[in-house]
Every structure is written in C-alpha cells, then in structure tokens.
C-alpha cells in the first residue's frame, strides 16, 4: 500500500521538477543564450544538474524542449508576417528590422543562427526555415528592383551571421546605435529605384 501511494507522489514530483526546469531554462536561454551553464539553470529551478539530465537527457534535450518558447515561435511569426506584406520594399524593411531586433533581444537566436549545437535536428530545422525565407525574400526583392542587383541570399545570410557574431562576442551597442546601424544596412542593400523612392 505504501509503495502504491508513493508512486503518484513521485510522478507529481517529477512533473513539478520538469516544469521548474523548463521555466528556468526559458529564462536563462532568453537572457544569456543557449550556452548558459546548466548549473545556473539547475540553481534557478531548485534542482540538481543531475535532475536535468534525468529529465531531459542533457543540454540538447533541454534546448529542444523549450526552443519553441525561447525563439522559434517568434521567428516563425516574423517569417509569416513578412509573407503577408504586399509591397516588396516594405517586406524587406520589415523582415531585416524584425530579424535584427530578435537578434538584439534574444541571445539564443544568435546561437541558433551560428549553429552552436549542430547535433540538434530541431535547431537545424529552424536554420533551414530561415534560409528558405531569406532566399524567397531576396528573389522577390531583386525581381522588383528593390535590392541591389548583385545582392544575393548568401549576402543576406552573411550579414545576419556577422551580426550574430558581433552580438555574441563583441561589445554590445546601445539600442539607439544598433537601430541606427540597421538603417545603414538597409540603405546599403537597397536598389537604386528603392533608394530614390521610385
């Protein structure tokens, strides 16, 4: 009887621990990126590091358990919103501005872009979806003369990765400076018709 009574309690404890770990991981990953020490996540969750491994199998399992809430849903919202904008020039402006905003606010997004954990199929799928969106957007924008004719999807990818590296490893700029530089990037890639308002 005692064993039977204790089993539901163990399951309840496990569910509570998992929920606490998920909550702590979301906060830590959003604030510091996916490379935050698991000891910090465990401390915030009020559990041991071993419990994280028991519940999620380690860092990759934990990342995959929460990446939707951490960054994926917001990125996919940006991509979906971009596709609803009729004016291609506005589409490019919105997409790049929103992407750079996400990079500034969510260090975890930069870890995804830099493929910090390439063994995670889920993270690689996010990268694949982002690359497809880049290619689709650049193709449409070049067709309408919104971008410089020599500008490619590879160039857009490189700009985003360069920004990810700068934010992860460099000195973090003020938000005002960052937003001003976003405008410089946009001005630099726009086609002549777009730049002149035509």
Automatic annotation (TrEMBL):
<dbReference type="InterPro" id="IPR036271">
    <property type="entry name" value="Tet_transcr_reg_TetR-rel_C_sf"/>
</dbReference>
<keyword id="KW-0805">Transcription regulation</keyword>
<dbReference type="InterPro" id="IPR001647">
    <property type="entry name" value="HTH_TetR"/>
</dbReference>
<keyword id="KW-0238">DNA-binding</keyword>
<dbReference type="InterPro" id="IPR050109">
    <property type="entry name" value="HTH-type_TetR-like_transc_reg"/>
</dbReference>
<protein>
    <submittedName>
        <fullName>TetR/AcrR family transcriptional regulator</fullName>
    </submittedName>
</protein>
<keyword id="KW-0804">Transcription</keyword>
<dbReference type="Pfam" id="PF00440">
    <property type="entry name" value="TetR_N"/>
</dbReference>
<dbReference type="GO" id="GO:0000976">
    <property type="term" value="F:transcription cis-regulatory region binding"/>
</dbReference>
<feature type="DNA-binding region" description="H-T-H motif">
    <location>
        <begin position="37"/>
        <end position="56"/>
    </location>
</feature>
<feature type="domain" description="HTH tetR-type">
    <location>
        <begin position="15"/>
        <end position="74"/>
    </location>
</feature>
<dbReference type="GO" id="GO:0003700">
    <property type="term" value="F:DNA-binding transcription factor activity"/>
</dbReference>
<dbReference type="InterPro" id="IPR009057">
    <property type="entry name" value="Homeodomain-like_sf"/>
</dbReference>
């Amino acid at each position: 009887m005692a064993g039977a009574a204790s089993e539901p309690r163990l399951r309840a404890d496990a569910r509570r621990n998992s929920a606490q770990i998920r909550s702590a991981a979301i906060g830590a990953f959003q604030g510091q990126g996916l490379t935050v020490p698991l000891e910090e996540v465990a401390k915030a969750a009020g559990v041991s590091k071993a419990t994280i491994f028991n519940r999620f199998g380690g860092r990759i399992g934990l990342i995959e358990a929460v990446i939707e809430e951490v960054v994926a849903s917001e990125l996919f919202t940006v991509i979906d919103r971009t596709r609803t904008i009729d004016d291609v020039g506005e589409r490019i402006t919105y997409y790049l501005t929103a992407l750079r905003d996400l990079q500034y606010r969510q260090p975890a997004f930069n870890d995804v872009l830099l493929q910090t954990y390439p063994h995670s199929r889920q993270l690689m799928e996010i990268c694949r979806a982002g690359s497809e969106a880049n290619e689709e957007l650049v193709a449409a924008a070049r067709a309408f003369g919104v971008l410089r004719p020599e500008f490619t999807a590879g160039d857009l990818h490189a700009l985003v990765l360069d920004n990810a590296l700068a934010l992860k490893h460099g000195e973090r700029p003020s938000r005002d400076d960052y937003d001003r530089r976003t405008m410089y990037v946009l001005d630099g890639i726009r086609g002549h018709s777009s730049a002149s308002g035509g």
